[in-house]
Amino acid sequence: MKLGKTIRKHRAGILEYVRDRLNNGRVEGLNGKTRTITRRSYGFHSASALIAMIFLCCGGISACPMHVGPFRPH
User: Where exactly are the transmembrane stretches of this chain (predicted)?
Assistant: First the structure.
């Protein structure tokens, strides 16, 4: 009975998902990542530093060093 009521209550959203295959999973993931970065950034001096950190972490830029070990000249 409870399942039937829940399905009836959310019927429009369920049918939209079946038709379009769209959901808000990516947006929720980005929102969670942004909130985690915001929690870690309480020591920043300005909002621009927080915004820069969000862009760095969520922008898809790979900031890997060119070498892994100690520097070895060629």
Answer: 42-68
Q: Tell me, what amino acid is at 71?
A: F
Residue 11 corresponds to which tokens in the numbers above? Answer: 């019927």
Domain assignment of residue 50, yes or no: yes
- The span from the CA of 49 to the CA of 40, in Å, is 12
Cα 37 to Cα 47: distance, rounded to the nearest angstrom: 12
Q: Would residue 71 count as lying in a domain?
A: no
Task: Say what the pLDDT of residue 72 is.
Answer: 59
Please list, in sequence order, all residues whose beta carbon lies within 8 angstroms of the beta carbon of residue 63, skipping any fewer than 6 positions away.
56
Q: pLDDT tens digits for the chain (74 residues)?
A: 999 999 999 999 999 999 999 989 999 999 999 999 999 988 888 999 999 999 988 888 777 766 666 665 55
